[in-house]
């Protein structure tokens, strides 16, 4: 972030002697590369060269060889350890004699950075003084456990500002920048300042200590006589010595100090004055995590919360937090949705009537006031009461629209102690749209209550509950609306894993899922086109996008997809889709949203990340549906985002996720598209965008898409 951009010639003097050793030499190289981050490497700005010294100095590369930071750092990595004695004085004399190889004239400031352990076997005082007399700024960097007194002799004055320790590369790079800022470089960025702080200089010293006494024999004045005595015994050991000192660094204000991210968002700084916010689910409407979702529909909405002993006080408080976060995310100032809240255990209460609060603040305050009840879990009785009394009109709600759809959201995490099946049917007869939300072990009961697995939302763990906010928002607003993408144009490819890892029985389930999913789309040339690819170690196109023009034909054709066996290569399948399915030649339509749905057990996904990224780069969404124990990190690299990954525990549960998957596909169909992605021009033609159109620039070919020779 902080770079010296002045005209500057920098020469590294790198100790490559045996006292350093190969390991510390590699650390010296890494450190030199980190110091380069403090410079703006450019032919007209900072130039860098390197000399390695041991018994003799050796020019690794002059200052005019590498004029970009990337090339320079790559070259530093390739410097080889030479070994030999430590002749630092000789290296300094070499610099005095040769100057800065590849450097500019004397008007450009010169900086010498010596990286050494300071254990020179020749004299350094005189050549060091002569170097500094030539107005060369000298930094001495200690590596390993250096001899600091020699480094102080080498460094320019004041020594505290020109001596660095390679043990902390980032701090040392900051210290280098801070010192240069006060002399040859431009001033620090606005708001930044150089400050001193206490630090330590560490080294190993060999000390002599008394280990004890032992019996020894000494001669006496008498001839041929000796006498016993106690003699001291000494031993030598290495001791870590810490010398307190002062270091300098540049400190800049953090752009996140003002806490700009709202609604629980996390601020991530980007440089000195920029940042971005990582927002919670349901937020991100602007850069500061404003509410992102909104109920783009008008409904009468009643939340029925389980307050029985089965959910426990902790679970009840979690539901309150979920309810508040959901309403904060979806209720804007102009919301036309009327919200109420009921809770139940043995009995039912409606502390917040539907439409009682017209603003989010008063609604949140009322939710905070809800208390845990405990007691039995009579879900059936509660639903029956809500069906009869939950939306009862009264003078308080005289301005309420009577024709709004009525939605009940049941929040429960404990099995009902009474019957629920008939009550759910009774609610549907009263035109009440019921949505069930609960943990995964409640799926069967919630499906029985709602009568439809698509109206059941389950979560895997407490935190996952909050990730279901967008799904709940979509489900609430789907009341009364037909399924599928309707009039949205879409090119859709199902890539089905037909390998031995999936097995024949499960392959038939995946194929059946693709078949039933196709019923949700209007298949014709103008709306949705479908293609099917099955794959094992190789991919096979069962039918292309332009093969069938009706839903009936697609249904019949999907049944022709055959089990292949063998190993799985999802990467090969996605490359096949990119090069042989999602092409204009095979029926792909320019300007139409494009989606690939990969149905797999997660095997053979290791080679799929790069092809998936290639598809996304060319405007094709990759949606991964994985069943079983596949590694989530591998799946995420293929999907590119958690929004486009559905990870299911068993094949039996696959049908319950069909509605969610189709909704997300249809959301993508509504997104704006780039007419030139994927490239509609054949034979290396170049696609050129115009206002609402495109044209192909052909080379040796003719036709609208360069299809004719």
TrEMBL record:
Residues 253-290, 672-707 form the EGF-like domain. It is found in: Secreted, Extracellular space, Extracellular matrix. Signal peptide: none annotated. GO terms for biological process: calcium-independent cell-matrix adhesion. The keyword Disulfide bond applies. SUPFAM superfamilies: EGF/Laminin (SSF57196), vWA-like (SSF53300). InterPro entries: ECM_Assembly_Org, EGF, EGF-like_Ca-bd_dom, EGF-like_CS, VWF_A, vWFA_dom_sf. Pfam families: EGF, hEGF, VWA. GO terms for molecular function: calcium ion binding; identical protein binding. GO terms for cellular component: basement membrane; collagen trimer; extracellular space. Residues 9-180, 300-476, 491-665 form the VWFA domain. Keywords: Cell adhesion, Collagen, Disulfide bond, EGF-like domain, Extracellular matrix, Repeat, Secreted, Signal. Forms monomers and multimers. PANTHER family: COLLAGEN ALPHA (PTHR24020), VON WILLEBRAND FACTOR A DOMAIN-CONTAINING PROTEIN 2 (PTHR24020:SF37). This is von Willebrand factor A domain-containing protein 2.
